[in-house]
Structures are given as C-alpha cells and as structure tokens.
Design a protein that fits this description.
Layout lengths: L15 E3 L1 H9 L10 E6 L11 H13 L8 E4 L2 E4 L15 E2 L4 E8 L10 H18 L3 H4 E3 L15 H12 L18 H16 L10 H8 L10 E5 L2 E7 L4 E5 L7 E2 H5 L9 H11 L10 H9 L10 E5 L2 E7 L4 E5 L7 E2 L9 H17 L9 H9 L9 E5 L2 E7 L4 E5 L7 E2 H4 L10 H7 L15 E5 L8 E2 L8 E7 L3 H8 L10 E3 L5 E3 L6 E2 L4 E4 L2 E4 L4 E7 L7 H18 L6 E3 H4 L19
Parallel strand pairs: 2-6, 2-7, 3-6, 16-20, 20-24, 22-28, 22-29, 23-28
Antiparallel strand pairs: 1-4, 3-4, 5-6, 8-9, 9-10, 10-11, 12-13, 13-14, 14-15, 16-17, 17-18, 18-19, 21-25, 23-24, 26-27
Length: 633
C-alpha cells in the first residue's frame, strides 16, 4: 500500500488510474496486510464494453452499482482502455468471485482483476490486454508465485463464462509467461469454444436472476458468495436484503432465502454457512447465535419468532419452509375455521384447534377431493394475497407453480426485454417461470438453466399434460403496457433520492435512437443520464428505474417561481424520434403512458412539459413534437 491509496465512498474505492510503468512500480513496492493474497481471479466486465467505458465516470458508476447492492467491498483492479484503475485496496479482501474471494478464516484470499469488455466471442486485445498482462505479471513477481499457480478464472468458482468463453488459461499463461521473460509469446491456440451455457442464455439467466432477487432484496450478483451459494444449492430467492447483526463481539452478515438463511462472519465473505445446519432441527435457547439468526429471519416476514407456537415449532423441525411472509391468520371454508401461515416454500394450516395435525398446502396440489380442493383454492388465494397478488386458477403460470410446488409468489407476471427479445416471467420463492413472447405455451424454469446439462425441464408437451383445459397463457394486458429493460449483471447508476420531493411534473425528452442501443447505454453504470421511461418508435414502453427514485434526466431549471432540481420532482420520459420523424405507434404509446402517470400521481395537464420548455439550453429537445396532444392524455 502507498500513501496515495486514499479511499472514498461505499464500498471504499481508490479511484486512481495508472499507466503500465506506474503500476509496475506500485505493485513492486506494495505492502500487504496481515495476510498476503495467493490467487488472482480474472474477470471480464461484459458490460460496460470497451466502447461504453467512460473512465472515472464508469468507475464511480460501478461504485454506485455495488453500493446499491449493499456491498462492503468490490474487485481490486479494473484494466481499461485508458489505464489500470485501482478500486479496492489490495491489502483488503474484495468481493468479486463468491467462494473465490477467500477469507481471513480460510487463511487465503484473492485479488480480483476485471478486464473491461465482452470476451465471450473474441479475446481481449490492445490496451486492455497489454494492461492485463502487466497486472498479472506484476502480481506474479511481487508475490513470487508462478502464473500457473496464481491464476484462476471466475468460472472456476461459478457457472458463468467469465472472463469470457474465448479466453483460455492456455492462452493467458503463454502470454503472461512470455511477458515475464521478455520473450515473444507462443503461437496462440484457438479461442475457447462457447461453453455449456451460451452467452445469450447466460444473459437471459442473469437478467431473470436480477429481477428475481430484486423482488425482496438488492438484486443478484454472481460475485457475491451468498448469491452464488444459493444458486448452486437451489435455495431459491432471497426474502430480504442482506443485513448484519452483532453477537458475541463479532459482526455477522446474513440473508434469508426461501429454503434457508445464509450467514458468515465479517469479513470472511467466502465462508458461507447455513442456519439449518446450525439449528439441526431444534430451537436454540436465547442468547445463542442460532437464536439471534432465527429471530432475525422471522422478523423479515413481520412475524416474531414464538418458540411456543405450533406453526413455528413445525417450521423449525421441518427445516424446509424458510421464513414466514406474514403473521399467522384465519379463514373459514364451508363454516369450518382454519389457521394458516404463509412461509416461503409452503403454506401450513390446521383445522380449528387441531394443533397436532398441521398440514401443508402443497400436499393438496393434485387432490381430486372436492372439499379438499375448495380448502386448497382458498389457501392459494390467501397465499397470493400475502404477496399482494390475485390467484387466478385458470392462468398457466399459477397452475404450473402449484404443480411444481414453487412456493409463495413474490410478484406478479411481468414482461421484460433482454437483448432484442421480450419475455414474460413470474417469480416464486423457489424458482422463476418464464416464456418468450409470443410462444406462450413454451414455459420454462429458470433453475433448469443451471441444472445438469442445462436441460429445459418444462418442454411444451409435459406442460400441456399438467394444465387444465382452457388454461390461460397470455396475460391480460392493455393495448400498451410497461416492460422492464434489463442489462444482465448490471444496473443503472444515473439516479438518486428524491429527498422528500413530491412528483409534480412529467418531463419529455427526445432521442434519436436506435432504442435498444440507447437503452443499453443509459442502463450502464457511469451513464450520466437516463429517464424513468423510454417510448420506442414501434410503441414499446420500457422502464429503466422505479418512480420512487430521481432519475438524472433533466437538471436545474427555473420552474414554479424558483430555480430547482427538476429531477427530484419529476418523472422523465424519453421518446424515440428516428430521422424519419415521430411514429403513430410511439405517439399513441406516449399518450397512454402520460395518462397512466397523470392518474397515478394526480398531475394536471400543465404539469406535462418538454425539457425544452424549462431549459433554454435544450431548445431543440422535442421542439418539433406536433401540437399539445401529449397534455391531453
């Protein structure tokens, strides 16, 4: 470490860019802490690409991305086209490769090196590759560890392609050894073949995982040990954000998932442990770590743990129900009273006061008994209501979730665009089911992508046999609807807090497009601006960030008698305007969106403005939008 290694922000970032000579001097003199790293894990960013990289702005965007996910640390080094960027101090344990992070408890840790770019189909070259060889070679010299022993790939610790399928260890080691020996590299072997999960499927999986984890937590990242452990051990999705608790003078990170709560002692991020193994089916006494974690897990569902309650005793003994989603309740079916409680993976219930006869809703999934089927459907209604949803017994997704016992729903059926394809998906506690539009009947399970041989478990024929006649596949959407736009493994950073400001304006902007290219650029960490919504020329409406946040789409302007930060009190909407002019489809979609937002936030017609109406510097922004029809939605 040097005197210039001052960190700022969360997670702590150095944010300094070095040339190759500066890096080699830096690493040669670097003083590590109580533990010296023994591995270097190589990654690629995938996004941002080399073309999307914006130097310090991209580094700050990545910092915001990690902070929004609650990370306490990050990768150590980014090798970019403009130099070698320092993020996490190398003396500290970073977060970048799940179990490949290492830990103090394990007695080893790794340095995380990110190559800026997408290397699934072509190898890195130019400044990025020259810098990467210097980083790997410099660390090999400083640590006195041969490259073959030092180097690991992110995919060694996960099912990702990272650092890209085209990058092989044979090629990397040949290049780095030649660099160390100041010799010409050997003839390059062929680029690595596309692996078992093709890039387009990996992109879809990452996007669906992000949406699934964001239902109740901070979104997904494969570099986080909790998330990687949960995927590999089929624990389902998180029921709450990662949190911390103090016990016995130590700090523990923990996160409840559908099938178990994971925890580790800070900062031993890679040493993931399971609460179920700590409890071993018994209720621990107060004052123990197990009891503290059990109480915290139940608190996430708004149902304090009661060791004397039959439902809670049953749940702990069974070890498979996960946390509750709400307190226990009652319902009446045909004059009979039932108590029930919705847990992540199942709903348990009993009749009257028969506390010794607790049953599971999943056991009634295929019942043909009319009385039992009525109880099942009423409990399913209650289970969906716990997630704020309506149970629709005729919907294919709902029928399949019941047949496959996917647990409680965590949200409604939503559309999402990944790349140039649109999908429908619904998140349940233990899995997400989806289909590609318009192939409604080809329903698949997200978990199948990561299963053995990546087999698609839900092919059309088996699905058809599971469904009732007349099952509804297509959701009942309006002519226009809002769909999420997602970039796998990344999230936008061009937003902040509204600082208590009420939404009072809808501000319209223009964009030359093409839509998908603009959307991907704005969704990158480090992008300086983005709206909440983007209306494409073909009439699709995309959402990049939730309304509760202040998207950076406008800026300071004079409005309502004072100069204000317009972002804090407005919704930003961007309209694609190709060189051929506005399209009828986009104008109709914009009119629908404006009407929807005005009704939702009680915004008068005068509150719908173009950015050019507020900012003289943007006089050309939508200046040619015909008439004032957009205020009449």
């Amino acid at each position: 470490m040097t005197s210039q290694d001052v960190t700022t922000g969360t997670p702590p970032m150095i944010g300094r860019c070095l040339t190759i000579p500066q890096w080699l001097d830096y690493v040669a003199r670097y003083q590590f802490g109580q533990l010296t790293p023994s591995k270097v894990v190589l990654h690629h960013t995938w996004r941002p690409t080399v073309q999307q990289w914006r130097g310090l702005a991209s580094m700050q965007g990545m910092q915001r991305y990690y902070a929004n996910k609650g990370w306490a640390s990050a990768p150590h080094i980014y090798v970019a086209p403009d130099g070698i960027w320092l993020f996490t101090p190398m003396k500290d344990i970073g977060i970048h490769a799940g179990p490949g992070n290492g830990s103090l408890k394990a007695g080893w840790y790794s340095i995380g090196v990110e190559m800026v770019g997408d290397y699934d189909r072509e190898r890195p070259s130019g400044a990025v590759w020259e810098g990467t060889k210097a980083v790997l070679g410099g660390l090999s010299r400083r640590l006195n560890i041969p490259p073959a022993t030092l180097l690991a790939f992110h995919r060694d610790y996960s099912k990702k392609s990272c650092p890209g399928w085209a990058v092989t260890k044979e090629w990397v080691l040949g290049e780095v050894n030649a660099w160390l020996n100041n010799a010409a590299p050997p003839p390059p072997p062929p680029p690595g073949p596309i692996g078992s999960i093709p890039p387009e499927i990996e992109e879809l999986a990452e996007a669906l995982l992000e949406q699934s984890y964001a239902r109740r937590a901070e979104g997904y990242n494969s570099s986080w040990a909790f998330h990687q452990f949960a995927v590999e051990n089929n624990l389902g999705f998180p029921m709450a954000k990662s949190q911390r608790l103090q016990h016995g003078g130590k700090t523990y990170a923990y996160q409840p998932f559908a099938r178990d709560t994971l925890f580790c002692e800070s900062p031993n991020w890679g040493d993931v442990q399971r609460l179920s193994q700590l409890l071993a089916g018994s209720i621990p006494p107060p004052g123990t770590l197990g009891r503290a974690l059990l109480d915290a897990t139940y608190a996430t569902g708004g149902s304090p743990f009661r060791p004397d309650w039959a439902f809670h005793q049953y749940a702990v003994a069974g070890q498979t129900l996960g946390p509750p989603l709400e307190p226990s309740k009652k319902l009446v079916v045909d004059g009979v009273s039932y108590s029930y409680q919705v847990f992540a993976t199942d709903t348990i219930f009993n009749r009257g006061t028969e506390w010794q006869n607790i049953q599971r809703l999943s056991a009634l999934a295929n019942t043909t008994n009319p009385a039992q089927a009525k109880v099942r459907d009423e409990l399913l209604k209650a289970t969906y209501a716990a997630a704020g949803q309506q149970y629709r017994p005729d919907w294919a997704f709902h029928q399949l979730a019941r047949q496959w016992n996917l647990g409680a729903p965590l949200g409604k059926t939503d559309p999402i665009t990944v790349g140039d394809k649109q999908y429908n998906f619904q998140v349940y506690a233990t899995d997400t089911i989806y289909n590609i539009v318009p192939n409604w009947s080809d329903v698949k399970r997200l978990s199948a992508i990561f299963g053995p041989q990546q087999m698609l478990l839900a092919a059309p024929a088996p699905v058809a046999r599971l469904l009732s006649p007349g099952a509804v596949f297509a959701p009942e959407w309006d002519a226009f609807h809002i769909q999420r736009f997602a970039v796998a493994g990344r999230a936008p950073s061009a937003y902040g807090s509204r600082s208590g400001s009420k939404i009072r304006l809808i501000v319209l902007h223009g964009d030359a497009g093409p839509a998908l290219q603009s959307l991907e650029t704005m969704a990158m960490p480090g992008s300086p601006r983005m709206p909440h919504y983007y209306v494409a020329a073909h009439g699709a409406i995309y959402q990049l960030i939730d309304d509760e946040f202040a998207a950076f789409h406008s800026g300071m302007a004079y409005w309502d008698g004072a100069r204000r930060n317009i972002n804090r009190s407005s919704i930003g909407v961007m309209l694609e305007r190709p060189h051929t002019g506005y399209t009828d489809a986009s104008q109709r979609a914009l009119s629908w969106l404006i009407a929807h937002l005005r009704a939702k936030y009680n915004i008068p017609a005068s509150g719908v403005v173009r950015w050019s109406d507020l900012s003289p510097d943007a006089a050309g922004d939508l200046a040619d939008l015909p008439g004032n029809w957009y205020r009449e939605g």
